[in-house]
Design brief:
Among the domains are: about 140 residues, no CATH class; about 60 residues, Immunoglobulin-like. Helix content is about 70%, strand content about 10%. It contains 19 helices and seven strands. A four-stranded antiparallel sheet has the order 3-2-5-6, with no helix packed on it. It has a three-stranded mixed sheet with strand order 4-1-7, with no helix packed on it. Strand 2 and strand 3 form a beta hairpin. The chain is flat, with a radius of gyration of 43 Å.
Length: about 475
């Protein structure tokens, strides 16, 4: 027996139980029908063509039933019944609007009843409408939890945590196992703790406590793995710690060499190599250890300084020079090395401020400071190619931020407009000109009217720069 027949049999079994309880009612109904028929026999109703019309209607229904592909209809009944069963068995989908789900169940049962009664056309119509209704229901259900989640994600990104919590709760109320909303809920639950940890990291930075910073960022990532800012900050802190450890090991090696303790120097160099074996200082310092084993005194120190200076390793030069000043205060080479190293390292640190935060160059004052810094440190590039590269990088960043920006000037086509110190716009209704970032004054003049001055700050912005210059006050 096919699944359709089984379904029909089950439906008929339900109806038999109903029929047993309605036998008496049916008997009285039959008696009433008999009376009505008898009366109609004595009092015929006008319009004797009605039976013909009924026969014609029955004939059309029969033709419609014959036009239905029963095999395809059986397949559709089974597939639709499966859809209804899956919908009912889905806890959140079925409980969202239970009245509609009950309606779907009633519709599929009715479709099987129609099929069992050989009303194939009606069964097909019911199935088609039911499939459309189920699809619409599923789409509405999906929108009911995905839209609040999307709005919650936007609110969370804007740090509007109360709205994010309310919207995400709406999504989970509809679909409590929605993985994206559950993940967002974890972020919402830990938001304030994460904010406190960011503050700890900031305080650690002010205090110069890099270990405190690292611990805070590690805890942030543990609580909220999607905190990309914390990941980037942690990577930077880890790199700083690595550089500090490397610098300490390197300084230990240098001090050991100065004490003629070459075994200790080799141990420190091995420790530095374990931290970062790709640093060029290692090979250079190893060469210097070998050289120190052959020579002593100021000549050896000056040679080492020159080697590191030639390798553009001015941090090591500064270490050597500061140590050498105590032993060889009269050495012109050591004195000059210390001065040059200090200037180059200071210049490098100053330039890093602009390289690490290029967005600050959009500020006119900061950009001018950067221009001044480039000019001030350019003379040191003959000593340090690395510094020259940083200067070139800052120059490129300055140039990027100093690109002309579109400025739309609107007027009444009668006011004569000039950009003081720059040029003439003329009499226009609307004109777009280009100006580099900075502060400008637009002067409008018109015969018989009082002149006007409009101060404008031109800077990069997400919104277009539009100014109105008109002389409206008569003199």
């Amino acid at each position: 027996m096919s699944s359709v027949d089984e379904q029909i049999a089950q439906s008929r079994a339900k109806k038999k139980r109903v029929i047993v309880t309605g036998v008496i009612t049916s008997v009285f109904a039959c008696l009433l029908i008999g009376v009505v028929v008898t009366l109609l026999a004595y009092f015929p109703v006008s319009g004797g063509d009605t039976p013909v019309a009924e026969e014609k209607g029955e004939s059309q229904a029969s033709l419609a039933n014959h036009a239905v592909d029963r095999k395809a209809l059986q397949t559709a009944l089974n597939e639709t019944n499966q859809r209804v069963s899956e919908l009912v068995s889905s806890p959140y989908l079925s409980k969202w609007k239970p009245v509609k789900v009950a309606g779907f169940q009633a519709d599929i049962e009715q479709a099987f009843d129609d099929y069992g009664a050989s009303d194939y056309s009606q069964a097909q119509t019911t199935i088609e409408q039911l499939n459309t209704d189920i699809t619409n229901y599923q789409s509405a259900f999906e929108k009911a939890y995905k839209q609040p989640y999307a709005d919650a994600a936007k609110a969370f990104a804007a740090n509007d945590i109360d709205d994010a919590a309310q919207l995400n709760a709406q999504a989970l109320k509809v679909k409590g196992d929605y993985s994206d909303a559950l993940a967002l809920q974890k972020r919402i639950d830990t938001y304030h703790e994460v904010a406190d940890l960011y503050e700890q990291a900031r305080v650690g930075g002010v205090e110069g406590n890099i270990e405190k910073q690292r611990a805070a960022y590690q805890q942030i990532i543990k609580l909220d793995p999607q905190q990309e800012d914390a990941k980037a900050a942690l990577a930077k802190v880890e790199q700083q710690i690595k550089q500090q450890r490397f610098a300490r090991a390197l300084a230990t090696a240098v001090n050991a060499i100065d004490r003629k303790d070459f075994d200790r120097a080799q141990e420190a160099l091995a420790k530095a190599s374990a931290i970062d074996n790709n640093r060029p200082e290692l090979a250079t310092l190893q060469a210097q250890i070998d050289a120190e084993l052959k020579s002593q005194g100021m000549e050896s120190l000056e040679k080492r300084i020159q080697v590191f200076a030639g390798a553009d390793e001015w941090q090591t030069v500064l270490i050597l020079a500061e140590k050498g000043m105590a032993d060889y205060p009269d050495s012109q080479v050591v004195q000059q090395a210390k001065q040059s190293a200090g200037e180059i390292l200071a210049a490098s640190s100053a330039l890093d401020v602009y390289i690490d935060r290029p967005d600050r160059l959009a500020d006119n004052n900061i950009r001018q400071n950067a221009v001044n810094a480039v000019s001030r440190y350019s003379g040191l590039t003959q000593l340090s190619a690395k510094l020259g590269e940083k200067i070139s990088q800052v120059e490129q960043l300055i140039e990027q931020e100093n690109q002309p920006i579109d400025v739309t000037v609107r007027s009444d086509n009668r006011t004569y407009i000039k950009v003081l110190g720059v040029g003439v716009v003329g009499e226009v209704r609307e004109k777009t000109i280009q100006l580099k970032p900075g502060k400008y004054q637009f002067e409008g003049s018109r015969e018989g009217y009082r002149s006007t001055i409009v101060d404008v700050v031109v800077e990069k912005s997400g919104t277009p720069i539009v100014i109105n210059v008109q002389c409206n006050e008569r003199v």
